[in-house]
Structures are given as C-alpha cells and as structure tokens.
Amino acid sequence: MTGLVTNQLLLLKQLTFSRPLTISHRDVDNGNGVQNTIPALKRTSQEKPDYVEIDIQQTKDQQFVVLHDDILKTLAGLNKSPHQLTLQQLTQITVRENGHQAKLASFDDYLAAAKKLNQKLLIEIKATPTDSKDMTAIFIRRYQKQILKNHHLVQTLSYPVVTQLKQQAPQLFVSFILPYNLTLPVTKANAYTMEATTLNAKFIRHAQQQKQQVYAWTVNKPQ
User: Fold this and answer.
1) Secondary structure of residue 141 in the 3-state scheme
2) Which of 65, 90, 198, 220 could make an S-S bridge to 181, C-beta 3.0–4.6 Å?
3) Maximal C-alpha separation, the chain
4) Which pLDDT tens digit goes with each residue over 149-203?
5) Residue 29's closest CA among 46, 5, 14?
C-alpha cells in the first residue's frame, strides 16, 4: 500500500509540474466560428492556446488554401474540390458553420494573421492524389523560413510527405498522424499525432524512447 501511495504521489507531482500543451482543433473552440478561417483564429487566439491546428490543401494553380474538407459541400454547398479551383476562386467562397460565416483564406493570409496575433500554428498538410508531384518542395520553398521563424509545427497523414519534409527540410518539426494505434512505428518524424481513444502508455513510452513527442486529438474534457 505504501508503495502504491508513493507512486501515486510521484505521478501527481509530475503532472503538477508538466502542463500539457493546449491545441485548438481546426482553430475553433466551442463553436466560436467557422473552422479554418481567419475570424475564428482571431477569436480563439484570445484564449491563448499554445497552438492553433489548421489544415491546408493545394489548389488547381498550385497555391495553398486553408481548408479541411476535400469537397466544399458541407461548408459552402458546392460540389467542388479545392483542387478543381484556383486560389482566387476559392477565396471568394463564403463558408458557414456554427451560426457564423467567413471567406476561405489563402495560407499566406492566414500566416500573416497568425504572425500579427503572435499565435503559433500546427499546420496539417492534407496530401491527395491530385497534388502536383512537387507539392512538398513547393511548400518548403515558400514557407520553410516563415514556419521556422514563427515556431510553427507541421503534421500530415502522408508518410511520403513526412519523409520528403525530413529529407528536404530537416529543421522543420514534423508530426506523423496515425489514426489508430496499430503498431510501434520507427520513422524520422519528430512526433506522432493520434486519435485519443486508441492512444496508450505503451505507445507513449515507445515514442519517448525514440525522443519523439505525442499529440492526441480531440481532447475536449479536462479529465
């Protein structure tokens, strides 16, 4: 019993001195805006999260738009993919959610807004088969300096993109998203992002042994 109590006290002491990072999923909190839009970023940033997580996709003209869905049906009522439209066309579209509305934003404009707010980002690159072959190289060339200067992080579901990022821009902090805890991976990623219900202590210990961090989504309750 004494050993158990001692272990519990040590655990509580550790938790007291190691505050977890807070990350706003798709830049909203409690429905305070339309996901992945600058107005939502401005509202959520006032709550001082450590990071704001967003999604970007490549457009028809090889630019980047801030958007999660691969079809604009849910947010804009359009049966179109971001890869079918130019950035100029996309930024004219109004999206609606949670009783709010806003225009889609270019990644450049979103980065500028985050810099003005002094808000760090967790940027998810949503890779698709319709991306240009040099999508990762374009992203690095355009944004590596800004990302490093402003201490943003990058994540992606695509293992090839993880590999390309770490090979071509090794200074970038890159997390590999794993929807399910099915294996103990060995990769060059700096971290792993995992759906919270399948995350366990074994996986976390494995990552720590490899000097890699672990991010869990979506955690909405303090306990």
Assistant:
1) helix
2) 198
3) 66
4) 999 999 999 999 999 999 999 999 999 999 999 889 999 999 999 999 999 999 9
5) 46
